[in-house]
UniProtKB/TrEMBL annotation:
<dbReference type="InterPro" id="IPR004500">
    <property type="entry name" value="Pro-tRNA-synth_IIa_bac-type"/>
</dbReference>
<comment type="subunit">
    <text>Homodimer.</text>
</comment>
<dbReference type="InterPro" id="IPR007214">
    <property type="entry name" value="YbaK/aa-tRNA-synth-assoc-dom"/>
</dbReference>
<dbReference type="InterPro" id="IPR050062">
    <property type="entry name" value="Pro-tRNA_synthetase"/>
</dbReference>
<keyword id="KW-0963">Cytoplasm</keyword>
<feature type="domain" description="Aminoacyl-transfer RNA synthetases class-II family profile">
    <location>
        <begin position="38"/>
        <end position="477"/>
    </location>
</feature>
<dbReference type="InterPro" id="IPR002314">
    <property type="entry name" value="aa-tRNA-synt_IIb"/>
</dbReference>
<dbReference type="InterPro" id="IPR004154">
    <property type="entry name" value="Anticodon-bd"/>
</dbReference>
<dbReference type="InterPro" id="IPR033730">
    <property type="entry name" value="ProRS_core_prok"/>
</dbReference>
<keyword id="KW-0067">ATP-binding</keyword>
<dbReference type="GO" id="GO:0004827">
    <property type="term" value="F:proline-tRNA ligase activity"/>
</dbReference>
<protein>
    <recommendedName>
        <fullName>Proline--tRNA ligase</fullName>
        <ecNumber>6.1.1.15</ecNumber>
    </recommendedName>
</protein>
<dbReference type="Pfam" id="PF00587">
    <property type="entry name" value="tRNA-synt_2b"/>
</dbReference>
<dbReference type="InterPro" id="IPR002316">
    <property type="entry name" value="Pro-tRNA-ligase_IIa"/>
</dbReference>
<dbReference type="InterPro" id="IPR036621">
    <property type="entry name" value="Anticodon-bd_dom_sf"/>
</dbReference>
<dbReference type="InterPro" id="IPR006195">
    <property type="entry name" value="aa-tRNA-synth_II"/>
</dbReference>
<dbReference type="Pfam" id="PF04073">
    <property type="entry name" value="tRNA_edit"/>
</dbReference>
Length: 576
């Protein structure tokens, strides 16, 4: 590829909504372009990365015996009604109607369609096991799309589904996939951990998430450095024997400035990744001056464990609540700051609540709160799982760092992860609901045993960047790089020798099967290098007049502090 014939559009500044480094760098490197919330165009530079992810995933899936298929993105609702998910699934499922007012869904995953294929195709035990996979567009109407490709609404997933004749065979198929996942993530050069995950109503231990270790990850994972124990927080908590450390935790989440802030600023704090047992309450306080004007409004988040009555809440010490603050009503906040977050609307309640602060009882009124029932208990408040958990949730955990590991082999550590893959034993959940049977050895119909296996194809490059970047930009592992090598001629317009040598090297690398790009745009060296460092091409070869006189070029790996002079022929040893 020649850079002049490609689309390279780098930016100095990241967009203001890009909170994490992968989103900033992918945008600045011209890899993605936002079209709407959680909806991105994969620009040519970014698409090359995604295609590399797909190729490796496809290769390892094929190697593991899975068969590629492509299922429709738009799927008739009838299948989803068979399993009940059309109604059960909630707003993440995008439902659409055609011109005849018939219902459809845009696939967030494809158990229904693949089970429909299986019940038509796999009639005899002789046709099993089978594993069907696709690499396809998915749509999930995420409550809070964020972090660029990390949590998009439209994204690409590899989803595989295994069909087996009995439980043992299904568990073997599961293990084959779990092994293939390890190979895949090893090939990408990622630091990751496979952790036990909740297997929901199905039970058993056959659900694992593959978590790329990164401080910006949305999931908390618990592991023991001295053993194989590793689980996501949800799973670890569910099994933790000890009582929660605290009942409640309160934190100031936002100070609002009249005329400047909007309640949308507050909204993100209402979407905490709460565990089932943790409820939340949003409070607002106002401080007024002597003229009665509001000088400060603060939003507090109160998290509670267990079933607390709304009439009395123990919160321990509340910092900042003792000097002229009062609780504002929702209407008052609305009047000052404009619109309120929509989901506060229907579930808000204002009640007189007795607040127990440091064992002193203070009676407060007009609390603003969310997600409760008319009986003054909040139940099942869950505003999504889309935000890194703040420390106040850690307060409410059953598990903290240093607790003994359940296997008794050491102490627990906690770190953050990005879920890039998930393997899941399904049992007969879908085959029963959809009557997917095969005839066993005795000619008797049996429900197929299933498993499902996902990889976030478009999330993976973002996760890789979280692990591999520096102040100048992305540092791609070779397996993911949009180009493996960039050849950078210095002032080729002024030196025919440089141009000829760069063209020749480029042609030779191409002939050797190296994924190389020649930067023939005629940019000044500084700008040219800055572009490639931002884009993150791992190997750079600079061709300049001075070196050429001695038959040399400069080689620099993206991680190297400086370039090394090498003979032209030596370049191949570095880049292959
Ligand atoms: P999360 O917990 O992050 O919401 P999930 O558990 O809902 O993910 P799965 O249903 O297990 O996701 O889907 C398989 C894989 O698809 C995930 O492991 C993840 O890598 C990817 N994925 C899920 N949701 C998104 C998304 N909104 N954007 C990009 N990738 C996603
Ligand atoms: Mg999800
Ligand atoms: Mg998950
Ligand atoms: Mg998952």
């Amino acid at each position: 590829m020649k850079a002049s014939q490609f689309l390279i559009s780098t930016l100095k500044e990241a967009p203001s909504d890009a909170e994490v480094v992968s989103h900033q760098l992918m945008t600045r490197a011209g890899m993605i372009k936002k079209l709407g919330a959680g909806i991105y165009s994969y620009m040519p530079m970014g698409l090359r990365v995604i295609r590399k992810v797909e190729a490796i995933v496809r290769e390892e899936m094929n190697r593991a015996g899975a068969i590629e298929v492509a299922m429709p993105v738009v799927q008739p609702a009838e299948l989803w009604q068979e399993t009940g998910r059309f109604d059960k699934m909630g707003p993440e499922l995008l439902r659409i109607k055609d011109r005849h007012e018939r219902d459809y869904v845009v696939q967030p995953t494809s158990e229904e369609v693949v089970t429909d294929i299986a019940r038509q195709e796999f009639r005899s035990y002789k046709q099993l096991p089978k594993n069907l996979y696709q690499i396809q567009t998915k749509f999930r109407d995420e409550r809070r799309p964020r972090f660029g490709l990390m949590r998009g609404r439209e994204f690409t997933m590899k989803d595989a589904y295994s069909f087996d004749r009995d439980q043992d065979a299904a568990k073997a198929s599961y293990q084959v996939m779990a092994q293939a996942y390890r190979k895949i993530f090893d090939r990408f050069g990622l630091t990751y951990r496979a952790v036990a995950a909740d297997s929901g109503a199905i039970g058993g231990d056959l659900s694992e998430e593959f978590q790329v270790i990164a401080a910006t990850g949305e999931d908390a994972i618990v592991y023991c450095p001295d053993s194989d124990y590793a689980a996501n927080m949800e799973k670890a908590e569910a099994l933790a024997p000890q009582a929660p450390r605290k009942d409640a935790s309160l934190a100031l989440v936002k100070t609002l400035t009249p005329g400047k802030s909007t309640c949308a600023d507050v909204a993100e704090y209402l979407q905490l990744p709460l565990q089932n047992s943790v409820k939340s309450l949003v409070l607002a306080t106002e401080q007024t001056n002597e003229q009665g004007e509001i000088v400060k409004t603060q939003v507090w988040l109160l998290l509670l464990r267990g079933d607390h009555s709304m009439n009395e809440i123990k919160v321990g010490k509340v910092p900042g609540l003792d000097n002229g603050f009062r609780f504002a009503t929702l209407e008052e906040i609305d009047a000052h700051f404009g619109c309120l977050p929509g989901y506060l609307g229907p579930v808000q309640t204002k009640l007189p609540v007795k607040l127990v602060v440091d064992r002193e009882v203070a009676v407060m009124s007009d609390w603003v709160c969310g997600a409760n029932e008319a009986d003054y208990h909040y139940t099942g408040a869950n505003w999504g799982r889309d935000l890194p958990e703040p420390d106040l949730i850690a307060d409410l955990r059953n598990i903290v760092e240093g607790d003994p590991s359940p296997d008794g082999k050491g102490l627990l550590a906690i770190e953050r992860g990005i879920e890039i893959g998930h393997v899941f034993y399904l049992g007969t959940k879908y085959s029963r609901a959809m009557n997917a049977t095969f005839l066993d050895v005795n000619g008797k119909p049996q429900f197929m045993e299933m498993g499902c296996y996902g990889i976030g194809i478009t999330r993976l490059p973002a996760a890789a960047i979280e692990q591999n970047h520096d102040a100048r930009g992305i540092i791609w592992p070779d397996a993911l790089a949009p180009f493996t090598v960039v050849v950078c001629p210095i002032s080729p317009d002024r030196s025919p020798d440089v141009k000829a040598a760069a063209d020749k090297l480029y042609a030779e690398l191409l002939a050797a099967g190296v994924d190389v790009i020649l930067d023939d745009r005629g940019e000044r060296p500084g700008a040219m290098f800055a572009d490639w460092e931002l884009i993150g091409v791992p190997h750079r070869v600079t061709v300049g007049d001075k070196g050429l006189k001695d038959g040399q070029v400069e080689y620099q790996h993206r991680r190297d502090a400086a370039a090394t002079k090498v003979a032209v022929a030596e370049v191949f040893a570095f880049v292959q």
